[in-house]
Amino acid sequence: MSSPSRIPPRSGTAFRLSKGQLLTVIDPQGEQVSDLVAFNAGDTAEAISSGRSLDYASKLYLTTGDPIYSNRSNVMLRVEADTVGRHDFLLTPCSEDTFRIIYGDESPHRGCFGNLEAALAPFGIGPDSIPVAFNCFMNVVIDAQTGSFTVEAPPSKQGDYVAFRAEMDLIVGLTACSALQSNNYAFKPIDYKIED
C-alpha cells in the first residue's frame, strides 16, 4: 500500500479520481477539517450538491453507506468507511470574505475557497463553479429549536479517516481548512490516498 500524500496546513490540491477508485481523507494529527469538492471529469458543470444529497438522505450528517449526489441527481461518491461519523455539508468553503465578515481580518487569508480556486484552475474550473463542500470532520452543532448553529472542535482524532468510492470519473478538490474556528484554533495538515 502506498503512503498517503500530504496537504500542508492552509492549502489545497486537486486531482483526477477514476470511477471505482477509493479516496481516503485522513486527519493525521486530529481536529483538522478538510473541504472536499468534486466535478464530473467529462462535464465539469456537474458538481456535488449538498442540497440534493441531504434532501435524498433526509438527514444532515452523512456517513458510511451514504451517497453524495450531483446537481443532476447522479451519485458521484459513496461514503465507504468513516471512523468519525460527523461531517458538515451546509457551510461554504471559508474565503477572504469569510475572514473579513466573520473575523474582521483586514488582510485575510484566501481560505479554502481561494485554495480550491487555484488548485482547480488547471482543470478549467472557475470560482463561480465551486459548490458547497463536503467538510470532512467539521462539527457544526445545530439548535433544534431555533436553527442557530455553532462551529465546534472537530471530533476527529489522530489517524481518523473517511473514505469515498468514486461512482464516476471525477476531478476532486481537497483542502486542509484555513478557518481557526473550524479547526479548534490550530492549523494542521491533511493526508489522502487513492487506491484502486
Main beta sheet:
6 strands, antiparallel
- Category from helices, strands and their pairing: mainly beta
Rg: 15 Å
Q: Span from first to last CA?
A: 11 Å
What overall form do the CA principal axes indicate?
Answer: globular
Estimate what percentage of residues fall within beta strands. 25-35%
Count of discrete domains:
1
Order of helices and strands: EEEEEHEEHHEEEEEE
Mean pLDDT: 96
Structure description:
The protein has 196 residues and is mostly beta strands. The chain has one domain. 12% of the residues lie in helices and 35% in strands. It contains three helices and 13 strands; from the N terminus they run βββββαββααββββββ. Strands 1-13-3-11-7-6 form a six-stranded antiparallel β-sheet, covered by helices on one side. Strands 2, 4, 5, 8 and 12 form a five-stranded antiparallel β-sheet that branches. The protein is globular and about 40 Å long. The mean pLDDT is 96.
Summed up:
The chain has 196 residues and is mainly beta.
Fill in the keyword field for this structure.
12% helix; 196 residues; 13 strands; 5-stranded antiparallel β-sheet; mainly beta
Write the layout of secondary structure elements.
Elements: E1 5-7, E2 12-17, E3 22-27, E4 34-40, E5 43-47, H1 50-57, E6 67-69, E7 75-82, H2 96-101, H3 111-120, E8 134-136, E9 139-142, E10 149-152, E11 160-166, E12 170-175, E13 190-195
Antiparallel strand pairs: 1-13, 2-12, 3-11, 3-13, 4-5, 4-8, 4-12, 6-7, 7-11, 9-10
